């Protein structure tokens, strides 16, 4: 007799296509990991760019557009705090047609859906990308009106987290730092760390590297713009400029570079279909962040493609890198670390090769698929006690 089909309902506000930002990379990585465990996946996702979701379907994987929008303050009552009836009906219909093994709600904004879906008797896992209320509190206040809006948004997020997150059978966070915050109001046995991870093959060993320093990311995020301003205003100088070009890559990077019209030696290349190739073609990657939370994909990508990395402590927060990247927090130390990488390429390459080994053991697909299976088993035990 054939083994019964195991099916997971995966739902996220995040629009995973095109996959050009950290939150989108995580969604695709989670789905890939669930598929690697043998689950069929029914995926409800955002679709901000109106792509043809059906073109991304595969054997055992079906994408549908989630029937409600990413929450904004004006929608807070209907989205943050009430289950979405149309979405619940769709999930229940799927469950009747093909009994679900588990329901995975990705991103903390989904908390209001937990209780309604738990009535199926199916374990509900709630995934988070950051400790969202804390990240919002770090955002700068460019104006009083903007500041008041952020204050209200942070308060709404905090209330949402404390009201709904404890109802999930399991909660996933991306770092030990986030776990400690969630333990203040969620039973510790329900909290699981599944760090940000990716599925990047080890094919970049022999890529020719140009004399270039690269910072990648989405530059519509305040964390990246804050770090970029710090690096250009405090670290970038004639010494670095003589040694390498500074390249800013990723979403809105071509716009971001226009904020520095009088600074020579920098270039913004915008989005790239293959951002990994750009990182791999650089001698040094940097993560000069001073704000934010979670674990940064830009660190993992540099480790995976064997590009030497220099980061602030905040930039590599939550990443167990075993000393394979240089960490510096003052402008002088950050500059010196980059110059060291550029000056001794053999040593930098050896360190980057060790970083790839760390990536394989902790931040690749196989290691984190096993973690996800443990989460699902734990959630089922909690649900059975209910």
Question: Helix and strand layout, with pairings?
Answer:
Layout: E1 7-12, H1 22-36, E2 40-45, E3 61-65, H2 76-80, H3 85-97, E4 102-106, H4 114-118, E5 124-127, H5 132-138, H6 144-164, E6 170-173, H7 176-182, E7 191-193, E8 210-216, H8 222-235, H9 238-243, E9 245-249, H10 253-256, E10 266-270, H11 275-280, E11 282-287, H12 297-304, E12 309-311, E13 326-327, H13 331-343, H14 345-362, H15 365-385
Parallel strand pairs: 1-2, 1-4, 2-3, 4-5, 5-6, 6-7, 8-9, 8-11, 9-10, 11-12, 12-13
Describe the structure.
This protein has helices spanning 22-36, 76-80, 85-97, 114-118, 132-138, 144-164, 176-182, 222-235, 238-243, 253-256, 275-280, 297-304, 331-343, 345-362, 365-385, and strands spanning 7-12, 40-45, 61-65, 102-106, 124-127, 170-173, 191-193, 210-216, 245-249, 266-270, 282-287, 309-311, 326-327. 42% of the residues lie in helices and 16% in strands. By secondary structure, the protein is of the alpha/beta class. The radius of gyration is 21 Å and the shape is globular. The chain folds into two domains: 7-197 and 365-385, Rossmann fold; 210-362, Glycogen Phosphorylase B (Rossmann fold, 3-Layer(aba) Sandwich). α7 links the parallel β6 (170-173) and β7. α1 (22-36) crosses α15 (365-385), α5 (132-138) runs antiparallel to α6 and α8 crosses α13 (331-343). Strands 3-2-1-4-5-6-7 form a seven-stranded parallel beta sheet. The chain has a six-stranded parallel beta sheet with strand order 10-9-8-11-12-13, with helices on both faces. The protein contains 15 helices and 13 strands.
